[in-house]
Amino acid sequence: MKWHSLKEVKEQTDHQSVYPWNWKILTSTGHIPSYFFANLIPLTPNQVTLFWGIFGLLGISIIALGGYVNMLIGILVYQLAIWIDTADGTVARLTGIKTSGGPYLDYFFHNTHRALLLFALGLGLFNSSGDIFFLYVGIWCSFFLVFDNLYKMKIYESFSIINRFDLIKKFNNYLGGGEGGYHQERKNWKKKVNFYTREMIRPNNPFTLLFFSILFNVPHWYLILIAVLSPMLFMNNSIKIYRKFGTIDFSKKTN
């Protein structure tokens, strides 16, 4: 096994300027878990992804127990899982092991965690207060997040069925593909406001409103906010995607 120096690990750690401030907090120290997994516990990149994904589920489960202490411990465990998530790409670059399983597991955990966090928050608030309203709201929110991702995935399935793989990259760019959409243009203030608003309300990102709502013991307000926004965002995304998808002429090949 090759031993990778701390300098070598830092050089391979992702520090892209496109990342927003909350991700830069983690990526600026991402060399620490990367060094750990590259040398002390030599896991493959996919095993690192699997590890942080399961570790994140542990944090989500603790949140579901309810109570301020449990929710705080749970969200801190989840933040640690996201920090470990910064290591899999670095380990892949250091070892030269790059397989399709890595992105698959990464996107799988990100999307499932997103919905499960809101369900766990609703369940945790129900366990804390005994008010079943919060459980229903958690289910409501997770429903829209699951179907938002499913709606997008069906576009790729449609391209595959009609054998138009040439359109996948074009449409992926439209959806903001690559680094969670962090490469999308943010030159004017409207696009910046839209980008950072979406970034802060996402439950599975580091140091977003979910984290601070639990920290300051007001998670019910965050859940209610998402309950209002999630159907609106789902409908907005669905309409935009269908308008873009519905205008494509499948009889013409694109480069």
Task: Give an account of the 3D structure.
- This protein is an all-alpha fold and 255 residues long.
- The protein is built from twelve helices and no strands.
- The protein has helices at 6-12, 21-27, 31-40, 45-64, 68-85, 87-95, 101-129, 132-161, 168-174, 189-201, 209-215, 219-246.
- Helix 4 (45-64) runs parallel beside helix 7, helix 7 (101-129) runs antiparallel to helix 8 (132-161) and helix 8 runs parallel beside helix 12.
- It starts with 5 loop residues before the first helix and ends in a 9-residue tail after the last helix.
- The mean pLDDT is 85.
How many distinct helices? 12
The biggest beta sheet reads:
none
Helices and strands, in N-to-C order?
A: HHHHHHHHHHHH
Q: In one word, what is the shape?
A: globular
Number of strands: 0
List segments where confidence is low: pLDDT < 50 over at least 5 consecutive residues. Answer: none
What is the annotated CATH architecture? Up-down Bundle
Oligomer: single chain
Q: Count structural domains.
A: 1
* CATH homologous superfamily identity: CDP-alcohol phosphotransferase transmembrane (TM) domain
Question: What is the structure about, briefly put?
Answer:
With 255 residues, the protein is mainly α. The protein has a single domain (20-246), classed as CDP-alcohol phosphotransferase transmembrane (TM) domain (Four Helix Bundle (Hemerythrin (Met), subunit A), Up-down Bundle). It has helices at 6-12, 21-27, 31-40, 45-64, 68-85, 87-95, 101-129, 132-161, 168-174, 189-201, 209-215, 219-246.
